[in-house]
Write a structure and sequence with these properties.
The chain is α+β, with helices and mostly antiparallel strands. Helices cover about 45% and strands about 15% of the residues. It has a five-stranded antiparallel beta sheet with strand order 3-2-5-6-8. Helix 1 runs parallel beside helix 4.
């Protein structure tokens, strides 16, 4: 399988060139999800994937990217479930982090997923075979789902690849294929938003409306909130400084009578600088205020939205 060869090659590259090998290995791991039936029955492929994910987390930890290593392990542990890991081969730092993240996932709780097909099908979750129609218990978070027609049928074909989000403790989510139409009127569906290729790995596809795979749009901020506040602060300081310079124009540095040429041989000549700085500061302050206002309104609108079951294509 070419996908396994790509994982093996990227793992070796990670050891020699971590900067380039890391993105290549992550993309190769994501590509394996398209071979769920093969991985579910191939213990060697499962072990290779586990080693690759641990190697990626160890490289991130070695570069001081602790949060990235946590995210990598969280995603991997959700897929591994309760499978035993070769902790003794990981080294003390990575082994301790694996234990920490598994404890964190256990503390967060679990949810249940039930897959229902209107025709005979084979179901795989995180590249593990599951029984269609039966509820399975999983860590909260994202899980990969792969459906295909029953293997004993002629011309067995892929039906669906998607990512399902479980976000409620002890709650059961049901994924139906194809999705059953609702008898009650429902609001218009959320607008489809293809995910950027950089987030998808190799072989990415856009969303498919026919499969009911949806995503809510999340408009990006015009600028980071901290940067907007900093722009406002800089503008305010500049405007105050400009007003001060403008105010002291044509006055004596020592506070003497400006008409006394002996006591005050020189006068401040700061009018031009004061005018320019005041105008610049006011414009900067206004810019920061507008940016912050627009982004805060957008953020408020986003917080009003909630979606408990979130599908999106990924491959």
């Amino acid at each position: 399988m070419d996908a396994l060869a790509a994982v093996e090659s990227a793992t070796l590259e990670l050891n020699t060139d971590p900067e380039r090998g890391g993105p290549h290995l992550r993309a190769a791991i994501d590509e394996l999800a398209g071979y769920a039936p093969r991985l579910a029955s191939d213990l060697r492929a499962q072990a290779m994937r586990m080693t690759a994910e641990l190697s990626l987390a160890r490289a991130e930890l070695g570069r001081g990217e602790e949060q990235a290593a946590r995210d990598t392990l969280d995603a991997a542990l959700r897929g591994w479930g309760d499978q035993p890991l070769p902790i003794e081969r990981l080294g003390p730092s990575l082994g301790a982090l694996v234990d920490e993240r598994r404890d964190a996932l256990d503390a967060a709780g679990r949810g249940r997923l039930r897959i229902e097909c209107s025709q005979p099908c084979e179901a795989f979750v995180d590249e593990r075979a599951v029984e269609a129609g039966a509820a399975i218990e999983l860590y909260l978070g994202e899980h990969r789902v792969y459906l295909r027609t029953a293997a004993d049928e002629p011309d067995a074909a892929e039906l669906l690849r998607a990512v399902v989000l479980l976000d409620e403790v002890d709650a059961e989510q049901v994924l139906r294929f194809p999705e059953r139409p609702s008898e009650a009127p429902s609001p218009p569906p959320p607008r489809l938003r293809p995910r950027p290729p950089s987030d998808e790995g190799l072989g990415a596809r856009d969303h498919d409306p026919a499969l009911g795979i949806i995503d809510h749009p999340h408009p990006r901020r015009l600028a980071p909130r901290g940067a907007e506040i900093a722009v406002m602060a800089v503008g305010g300081v500049a405007m105050v400084a400009g007003v001060v310079l403008w105010a002291i124009d044509s006055t004596c540095p020592g506070g003497a009578d400006p008409n006394d040429v002996i006591a005050c041989p020189e006068l401040y000549n700061t009018r031009a600088a004061g005018v320019v700085m005041t105008a610049t500061g006011a414009a900067t302050l206004l810019t920061g205020t507008v940016l912050l206002s627009v982004d805060e309104v957008r953020a408020g609108e986003r917080r009003d939205r909630s979606l408990s079951l979130h599908w999106r294509t990924r491959f």
